[in-house]
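Cross-check.
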Amino acid sequence: MQINIVKVNGILWSGEADSVTAPGAEGELTILPHHVPLVTALNHGRLVVKKDTKEVFTHDVDGGVLEVTGKNVTMLL
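Predicted model, tokenized:
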């Protein structure tokens, strides 16, 4: 699935991945391919993007919004 992590000053990370784990408003959540559409607030915590079971990107977040649509996951931090 396509992951796009965006901050005010530009794209922080963009690429294909197998999963993304983020600190959602109701607790930590992991998004896998074919996840149902979703929009949720992000809390303070660690964001982890994995491909082939390896962490390819990690970032500490202080809030934001996560959106899942089709094969795309977009995070606005």
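The first strand starts at residue 2 and ends at 7. Residues 43 and 63 are 4 Å apart (CA to CA). Passed to J.P. for a second look.
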